[in-house]
User: Fold this.
Amino acid sequence: MGQAASRSQAAHRSTALVVGPVQHAEGVRQLVESFRRVPAGEPVRLAKKTSNLFRPRASSSSPGLDTTGLTRVVSVDPDARTADVQGMCTYEDLVDATLPYGLMPYVVPQLKTITLGGAVTGLGIESSSFRLGLPHESVLEMDVLTGTGEIVTARPDGTARELALFRGFPNSYGSLGYAVRVRIALEPVKRYVELRHVRFDSIAALTAALERIGAEGGYDDEEVDFLDGVVFSAGESYLCLGRRTDEPGPVSDYTGVRDKQAVFYRSIQHGRPAGSVRRDRLTIRDYLWRWDTDWFWCSRAFGVQNPGIRKLWPQHLLRSSAYWKIIALDHRYDLGNKIGALKGEGPRERVVQDVEVTIDHTAEFLEWFLREVPIEPLWVCPLRLRERTPAPPLGDGPGSDRPWPLYPLAPDTTYVNIGFWSSAPIEPGTSECEWNRRIEEEVSRLGGHKSLYSEVFYSREEFSQLYGGVHAALLKSEFDPDGRLATLYDKAVGAR
Assistant:
């Protein structure tokens, strides 16, 4: 297909994804009506068949909220570089609506089916986060359906109540309400991303380079717009440095369209000495979704990286949403352990987590993990809040003076997100959650945090200290006084 035809097709899809204010108002009406139909005293939940959570979801017989009319983009303003987006819109659709204007969301999480509302009420991170922070930091205002059934427009320059919801909504995971409409800022992009995969032979050298690039915004006299990396072992790790460009040139394909056998994370590796570079180039859209085709490296667990299986695997199923369905079956029937037992293997514990530690503790954590936990590779992605100064306190308690008190990262501090998504053998005499508990303890020892999309084992007291404490309770009493929505602790820990 020619470039002109591709651009025309993209523009057509972009138009189809924009619903406009009238259809949006109808979607909101359906949502509110479905809330009113939930019997008094019954818990309120979304009517969703899919989820990007790795922790169990509490079951409920009550009818869920109707979000079928809230899955698109309301409008894109290319002059103001903003978009009004419905809460259940996936990033795949959001990106396809903005790229024809030469714009992208500040931070695009790695998996296509993550929704904007989910990334704002939870957490998201990607390779632009060292410059632009987390997805909720690009939010200009949002409409939230709270636990009282009212729609509250939360904005940073609104009333004290609106500001409290604006700052308290991130990392609330639906415990305060659900995003209905989110206005976000957009960033200009270019047609391609030029990549440099730089090899390091020690964790110390890798983390030193992360810190230097974050401070200087470049590496070896080239600008760095995107920054993440992969640790394969203590002696082999890489940083992936991306630079926006319109310079023409050949591009690689890791989507399975032209080369079905190409796997992005394997393309990073090269046998050259430490400090050497392998270059690559992707279109901006393929760069944003470079991890989705194989869900980083998780497709290997399903045999999809086996050349024979990959040859027969339908191209349209080379995506994370297809693997999610396999994971759902595994969760339901414990297929992995049953298949392992047939092979004479013992049971395994799922270890699927993202954690953040400060840059000065990153090498220590990575070296501990590689020494103690039998999982590789690891993803590393630096982040730094866009808000660089302490925020006015919203109240008493842990984190109330942080910009986002329910996930109280410190301003003017570089963190590194470390992601690991696999399983480890359950050792004789240990519990089935031993690996996850050990990792939690090490993260806490180093003063870090972990994301709450997966299994969590903190005590109620530990959880309160880490995730908003008194402030979380105050927000809950204001926006869900009757407890129609589960508390953050019950969602993250109590649902296990």
Remarks:
- Residues 20-37 form the longest helix (18 residues).
